[in-house]
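Box 3.1. Reading complex inputs
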Amino acid sequence: AQKITQTQPGMFVQEKEAVTLDCTYDTSDPSYGLFWYKQPSSGEMIFLIYQGSYDQQNATEGRYSLNFQKARKSANLVISASQLGDSAMYFCAMREGHIGQNFVFGPGTRLSVLP
Amino acid sequence: TAGITQAPTSQILAAGRSMTLRCTQDMRHNAMYWYRQDLGLGLRLIHYSNTAGTTGKGEVPDGYSVSRANTDDFPLTLASAVPSQTSVYFCASSVDRANTGELFFGEGSRLTVL
C-alpha cells in the first residue's frame, strides 16, 4: 500500500501567488516525521521543511509552511509568494519511528510558476 | 564541503554486466540509503544501513546488494544488470535520530542498461 500519496502530478501557479501542494500519508506508528524536498531541473534534492508527529505548531521555513492535519493524515506544503525559481518537482516523504531508518517518498508534484 | 559524493555520475552498461555505484559521505552520519528515481514513481528505497556493519532491504531490493564496512562508504552493486535497472540512483545519509533527521543526498548517478 502507498504510504505517501501526492494526487497532483502537475500544478501551475502565477508568480507571486501562493500555492498548496497536497500530501497524505499512511502510518500506524504514533511517532513519525514528515518532510518536503524540492528537486529542480538540475536534479539535486533540496530539503525544505520538517514536521514531527508530536509537534503542536505547523512548521514554517521562510516562504514554506506545512499545513499539518494529523487526524486527516495530511501534510500539505504551502509556498507563499511564488517565484520563477520555485518551478521544480516537490516530494513529500515520511520517516517512521519504530521502523528505524525507513524513509519513504511520494511520487512527486511538478510545479510550474508562470510569469 | 563535500557532503555525499557519488561515482560515477553517469554510466552506460551492457545487460548482464556487473556494476558498483560508489557512495562516500564525510558527515559521520550513521544511516545511509540507496534510492532509485523513476518517472512517475518518485524515489524508491533499495537498501539502507542504520550503522556500519548492518544493512536492510527497502522496497525494491531485488537485483541489488550493498555493504557497509565502515561509516563513510556505502557501495551499491548490480551483479548482473538488466534494462529495468535503468534509472537515476541517489545515495543519501542522515543523522541517527528517530524521525527528525532529514536526508542529505548525493548528486545522483544516471545508469543506462542496454
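In summary: The interface with chain B takes residues 4, 6, 9, 31-33, 35, 37, 43-45, 47, 50, 52-53, 91, 93, 95-97, 100-108 of chain A (CB under 8 Å).
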